[in-house]
């Protein structure tokens, strides 16, 4: 496998052979958060396993499905209305799309250029599929009855206006990072990893340090979708370090660990997700799937198997 190159791979599961090793030190949710989540959704015991899994369909491919996660800048206190004109009608014929500017002098560290997926970022569409589940999130930037093409046009216009604003002179291409971050969502829905990564690299190089988790979560999703699971962990872990109490950073890490079949770490992050939002049904469903599909218990707390 050592001589494999990306162009020769036809199975996304083999992409992992091209990835970097996992970090020696993993991000971990606090034991307090895991215990709190387990209080809201109790793990099965030997006596309750049958009832816990009674409604779960054996042989389900549920865990093989790749969930999509997204952080809106509004969750970080940024108002889109400061950067996008929502009052002027726009055409929705698909002619205008939010193409992000090239970087003048990208920071290899901020852009995560050292990770293997960035070495083949112009070819990631080979395995990337449209994340249609994010359509509703994208349409939060649209008026009622508008399509995603209207959002694309509105972002395209906002980028052109941004270049005329003196306050954006220090942003690459004169485009504010908020717009390139928002544009990423459009490209993810369209299934265009090449343009999505281009927008994310702009965002990572221009956003304030405490806002970079927004782009890092999207980067982790794209890496996961294209088979670079270790790089996805690295990106999601960086987002988690910035915002350890943001629910999306927890569930994103949980999803990637589940894809790696590291179910113990996945469960910990699903339970820490529930500690933040106890009724978060996707986390509950995937907790149930892990227990019922593997039929195993896990060391969630020191010395105790659940």
UniProtKB/TrEMBL annotation:
TPR repeats: 247-280
Keywords: TPR repeat
Record field: transmembrane: none
GO CC terms, sorted: actin cytoskeleton; cytoplasm
One BP term from GO: actin filament polymerization
Signal sequence, start to end: none
PROSITE patterns named among the record's database cross-references: TPR (PS50005)
Keyword Acetylation: no
UniProt-listed PANTHER family: TETRATRICOPEPTIDE REPEAT PROTEIN 17 (PTHR16091:SF1), TTC17 PROTEIN (PTHR16091)
Protein name (database record): TPR_REGION domain-containing protein
Higher taxonomy: Eukaryota, Metazoa, Ecdysozoa, Nematoda, Chromadorea
